[in-house]
Write a structure and sequence with these properties.
Length: 134
């Protein structure tokens, strides 16, 4: 389930690309720590680290968009808010379990891994293209 940061995920913005690379590293650590049967504490800590970094990254992305008067900023913020809510729900789900379950692992794949790949490839690349064409 590990994500490989390659050219297909680059936006062309150095700050955003380096943050995406770090975000992907954290997601990969999360998926590694969220295998069925692993310790709950590792998954809880990794989810916390992911949320902390996500908040920094989303703030930087939104500032970049605001500075460049990106017309879809509010929609992009909505995407970010949906991700934050999904991660909070994962945290709640994990608190109720003794450790990562199959349902939890599947939710991580859908709500973190798949979401992140789609968000970078669609939403963030649109922002990068807008800024390049500006």
């Amino acid at each position: 389930m590990a994500i490989v940061f390659d050219d297909s995920l680059k936006t062309g913005n150095g700050l955003i690309d380096s943050q995406h690379q770090e975000l992907i590293d954290r997601v990969n650590r999360l998926t590694e720590n969220c295998k069925v049967g692993t310790e709950k504490l590792a998954a809880v800590q990794t989810l916390g680290f992911l949320m902390d970094y996500t908040n920094i990254h989303f703030a930087d992305e939104e500032k970049l968009q605001a500075d460049n008067e990106y017309p879809l900023l509010e929609a992009h913020k909505g995407q970010h808010a949906a991700f934050v809510k999904a991660v909070e729900e994962l945290q709640e789900m994990l608190e109720e379990e003794e450790g990562p379950s199959e349902a939890f692992v599947e939710a991580v794949k859908k709500n973190v891994v798949d979401w992140l790949l789609n968000h970078i490839c669609v939403w963030d690349k649109q922002v990068a293209q807008f800024i390049r064409e500006k």
